[in-house]
Protein backbone atom coordinates (compact mmCIF):
# COMPACT_ATOMS: atom_id res chain seq x y z
CA UNK A 1 0.00 0.00 0.00
CA UNK A 2 2.89 2.41 0.72
CA UNK A 3 4.01 2.13 -2.89
CA UNK A 4 0.54 3.21 -4.08
CA UNK A 5 0.55 6.11 -1.64
CA UNK A 6 4.05 7.13 -2.75
CA UNK A 7 3.00 7.15 -6.42
CA UNK A 8 -0.19 9.10 -5.70
CA UNK A 9 1.69 11.66 -3.56
CA UNK A 10 4.32 12.09 -6.27
CA UNK A 11 1.61 12.64 -8.88
CA UNK A 12 0.00 15.30 -6.67
CA UNK A 13 3.38 17.00 -6.28
CA UNK A 14 3.95 16.96 -10.05
CA UNK A 15 0.41 18.16 -10.81
CA UNK A 16 0.94 21.17 -8.51
CA UNK A 17 4.18 22.17 -10.21
CA UNK A 18 6.71 20.67 -7.73
CA UNK A 19 6.05 22.99 -4.74
CA UNK A 20 8.51 22.80 -1.87
CA UNK A 21 7.37 22.01 1.67
CA UNK A 22 4.11 20.28 0.73
CA UNK A 23 5.26 16.68 1.04
CA UNK A 24 3.30 15.96 4.22
CA UNK A 25 0.06 17.28 2.75
CA UNK A 26 0.61 15.36 -0.49
CA UNK A 27 1.30 12.16 1.44
CA UNK A 28 -1.76 12.63 3.70
CA UNK A 29 -4.08 13.35 0.78
CA UNK A 30 -2.68 10.42 -1.21
CA UNK A 31 -3.03 8.14 1.81
CA UNK A 32 -6.70 9.12 2.22
CA UNK A 33 -7.27 8.54 -1.49
CA UNK A 34 -5.63 5.09 -1.51
CA UNK A 35 -7.37 4.00 1.69
CA UNK A 36 -10.79 5.08 0.42
CA UNK A 37 -10.20 3.11 -2.78
CA UNK A 38 -9.24 0.01 -0.82
CA UNK A 39 -12.28 0.22 1.48
CA UNK A 40 -14.68 1.22 -1.27
CA UNK A 41 -15.94 4.13 0.82
CA UNK A 42 -15.19 7.56 -0.62
CA UNK A 43 -13.58 10.13 1.67
CA UNK A 44 -16.18 12.88 1.95
CA UNK A 45 -14.91 14.84 4.92
CA UNK A 46 -11.52 15.70 6.33
CA UNK A 47 -10.64 17.48 9.54
CA UNK A 48 -8.77 20.00 7.36
CA UNK A 49 -11.97 21.22 5.74
CA UNK A 50 -13.73 22.52 8.83
CA UNK A 51 -11.01 24.80 10.06
CA UNK A 52 -12.35 24.33 13.58
CA UNK A 53 -15.17 26.80 13.00
CA UNK A 54 -18.64 25.74 14.06
CA UNK A 55 -21.72 27.29 12.51
CA UNK A 56 -23.90 29.36 14.86
CA UNK A 57 -26.52 27.42 16.76
CA UNK A 58 -30.20 28.05 16.25
CA UNK A 59 -31.48 31.10 18.03
CA UNK A 60 -28.06 32.72 18.39
CA UNK A 61 -27.94 36.38 17.48
CA UNK A 62 -25.34 37.55 15.00
CA UNK A 63 -26.19 41.23 15.09
CA UNK A 64 -23.66 44.01 15.34
CA UNK A 65 -23.53 46.09 18.52
CA UNK A 66 -25.63 49.25 18.39
CA UNK A 67 -23.00 51.46 20.05
CA UNK A 68 -19.30 51.57 20.89
CA UNK A 69 -20.17 51.29 24.61
CA UNK A 70 -22.00 48.05 23.98
CA UNK A 71 -18.97 46.70 22.10
CA UNK A 72 -16.63 47.68 24.92
CA UNK A 73 -18.80 46.00 27.52
CA UNK A 74 -18.75 42.74 25.53
CA UNK A 75 -14.95 42.69 25.55
CA UNK A 76 -14.63 42.75 29.33
From TrEMBL:
Pfam families: DUF2934 (PF11154). Residues 1-76 are annotated as: Disordered. Residues 37-47 have a biased composition (Polar residues). Residues 1-36 have a biased composition (Basic and acidic residues). InterPro entries: DUF2934 (IPR021327). This is DUF2934 domain-containing protein. It comes from Rhizobium leguminosarum bv. trifolii WSM597. The lineage of its organism: Bacteria, Pseudomonadati, Pseudomonadota, Alphaproteobacteria, Hyphomicrobiales.
Amino acid sequence: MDDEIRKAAYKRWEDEGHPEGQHERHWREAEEEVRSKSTGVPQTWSSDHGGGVNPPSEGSALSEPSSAGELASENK
